[in-house]
Amino acid sequence: MEKHYLNRKFIILGLFLFTGIVFTIRLFYVQVIAEKYILSANNNVLRYITQYPARGLIYDRNGKLLVYNEAAYDMMVIPNQVKAMDTVEFCRLIDISIEDFRERLIKARRYSSYKPSIFESQINRENFGALQEKMFRFHGFFVQPRTLRSYPYPTAAHMLGYIGEASPAIIAANPYYKAGDYIGISGIEKSYEEELRGRKGMKIRVVDVHNRDMGTFEEGHYDTVSMPGKDLWASIDVDLQLLGELLMQNKKGSIVAIEPSSGEILCLVSSPTYDPNLLVGRIRSHNFSLLSADSINIPLFNRALMATYPPGSTFKTLNALIGLQEGVVSAETRYGCPGGFPLGNGHVVGCHSHAGPLNLVESIQHSCNTYYCKVFKSILEKDGFYATEKDFNIWRNHALSFGLGKRIGLDLPSELSGNIPSSAYYDKYHGKNRWHALTVISLAIGQGEILVTPVQLANLTAVIANRGFYITPHVIKGVGKPSSVNRPFMEKHLCTVDPRYFDLVVDGMERVVLAGTATNARLDSISICAKTGTAQNPHGDNHSIFIAFAPKENPKIAISVIVENAGYGATWAAPIASLMIEQYLKGEVLRVELKERMVNCNLIKP
Question: What single string gives the DSSP state of each residue in 139-163?
Fold first, then answer.
C-alpha cells in the first residue's frame, strides 16, 4: 500500500516538473527568441508608419513629363491616445470646423479605438510646414507622408484618369489595399494600377508619453522599404493633344488619332474636358461634385470611348470594300443618280446634286447615296432575293473584322462596343424572312442601327490606311522604359477584305480632298485621304464627322473627328482634322486664320 502511494507521489512530482520545464522553455522563447512578441510588448510606445511608394511617372511619346508626384501628408489619429488639447488651434491648422473635428473623431472610433485611421488626407507641403512644429501638442495624432499627382500640362484628363481612396469593396477583394490607400479610378491610372502603384513599406518609430518622435525602433531592423512604381511612356503627342483640345473648346465631340503602323494612339480628345489638376488633393471632392453636376457639358464623360454615333457617309468606304470583296461591284461599275434611291410608295433615300453616272472612285469622291444603296442591295441579294439573311450575315462578318460592333480591347477602361446589328435583331423586329435589303437600306449609308465609337472610327481609318489590317489601339508604348509594349499590342488583326481592293477606295478618299466633298481639308505638300460624314441625329442637329489619313503612302496618322450637332462633315470636322494632321506631320500649324476660326466658334447650345 505504501509503495502504491509512493509511486503516485513520483507521478505527481513528475507532472509538476514537466509543466515547469514547458513554461520555462515557452517563456524563454517568448522573451528571447520570438521577435513578434518583442514588438507586441512595445506596441504601446511604437508607431507604425506606412511608407507609401511614389507612383510611377507618365511621359508622352517624346519624353515630355505628363504626370509627376508632389509631397503631401495624411493626418492620422489613434482615438484611444487622444487627450485634452487645444482643439481650436488644431482645427485652424488643418482648416476644418469644430463640428468636422467631432464627427471625424467619432468616425475614427467606430473604425477602431486602437488602430490609426486617416483624420485629414492630402495636406500639402505648405500647410504641413506650419503644422509640423506643433504636432507634439496633439496627443494621438501623427502625420504620415505620401504623394499627390500633379499635371504640368492641363490636358488629357480622360486618358490619364485620376486616383482616389480605395473603396470597401476593393479592400475586401484585394488584400494589398487597406483603408486610406489610394488606387487608380479611371484612365491609365486604373488600367496600369499594378505597374504604377509600386510596393508599400513600413517604418516603426518610438514615441514618448508626450507623443514626441524619439527615433527608430531597434535601429530600423524591422522596417521595410517601399518600392516606387514603374514609369510609363504614353503614345500620345502632348502638343497634338493640346491643339486638339483647343480646337474642340466650346464644342461637344471627340478627336482620336492613331499611328496606323503601330496602333499607338497619338491623341485622345473628349470635349468638353477638364483640367486634371482639379481632381487632386483636398479640393478633389468639391470639384468632382461640380463636374458631375454639369448636365450640359458632362465633362467627366469620355466621348472618345463611350459615345456612340451613326458613322454616316464615312461608312461608305467599308461598304465599297465589302462590295469589291463579294464581287458585286468593280472599279468600272457605274450608277446614275436621279437625286436619290427610290424605295417605293413615294419614299426615297435622298442624295445631293452631283455629276453622273459615277464609277466607284467617283462615288466616294462625291459621296453618292444612290450608288451605295445599289451596292448594298447587291450585297444582300447576291444569292437571290430570298437569301437575304445569309448574305446579310456575310456582310456583317466583314464589318466585324474591321473592329466594329465589339470592344477593340485598347488599354483603357470603359470602352463601349458600338453596334453592328445582327440578323436575329431584324428577325425579332420584323419577323423571320419578313425583311429584305430595302428594309435595312439605311445601313448602306451608315445610318439605321449602326453605331460606332470615335476610337472605332479612327481604327477603321487605320485599317484602310494599312490596306487591310490593324494593331489594337493603345495609349502606353513603354512600361519601365520608353519602348516595351505588351505582345497583344503588337499583333496584326487582318480584316476579311483582300488587300488588293483597298487602293481603289484610297484613290477615292484622296479625291475627296483634291476635288470632292472636303476640299477645305487640303494641305499643300501632304496627300490627305479622307471621307466626310453627316450623321443624322434624332435628338437634334446632325453630327459633323470626318475620317482621314496621311500621307497616302506610308501613312503616319489616321484620324476621326466628330463634332456634335454641327451639320455637314466638311464644315467643322474636316478643317479640324486637317489642322491636326498639319500639326503632327509638320510640327506646327501655319494656317493661323483657319485655326482661329475653329477655336473661336462656340457650337454648344444652351
Answer: TTEEEEEEEEEE-SSS--HHHH--E
For residues 470 and 458, is the Cβ–Cβ distance under 8 A?
no
pLDDT in tens, 503-556: 999 999 999 999 999 999 999 889 999 999 988 877 778 899 999 999 999 999
Average model confidence (pLDDT) for the chain?
A: 89
Neighbours of 190 (CB within 10 A): 17
Please name which of 1, 136, 124 lies closest in space to residue 73, comparing C-alpha atoms. Answer: 124
Cis ω before 413 (30° cut-off from 0)? no
pTM for the full predicted model: 0.86
CA nearest to 341, candidates 426, 271, 248, 442: 442
For residue 480, what is its C-alpha cell? 519601365
- pLDDT tens track for 187-217: 999 999 999 999 988 888 787 665 566 777 7
The SS3 call for residue 309 is strand
Per-position DSSP letters for 266-284, written without gaps between them: EEEEEES---GGGGSGGGH
- Chain position carrying cell 476635288: 515
Q: Which three cell numbers stand for residue 351?
A: 442624295
> Is residue 190 within 8 Å of 184, Cβ to Cβ?
yes
Q: Which of 462, 456, 458 is nearest to 492 (CA)?
A: 462
> Which three cell numbers mark 568?
455637314
Cell 484618369 belongs to residue:
161
3-state secondary structure 352-386: CCCCCCECHHHHHHHCCHHHHHHHHHHHHCCCCHH
Tell which wins on pLDDT, 98 or 29: 98
Other Cβ atoms less than 10 A from the Cβ of 3: the count is 7
pLDDT of residue 436: 93
Specify burial of residue 77 (Cβ count, 10 A radius: 0-12, 13-18, 19+).
buried
The answer on pLDDT for 251 being more than 70 is yes
* Nearest to 107, CA basis, from 119, 96, 98: 119
Task: Name the 3-class secondary structure at 235.
Answer: coil
Which of 229, 213, 65, 55 shows the shortest CA–CA distance to 144?
213
Q: Side chain identity at 321, as an amino acid letter?
A: L
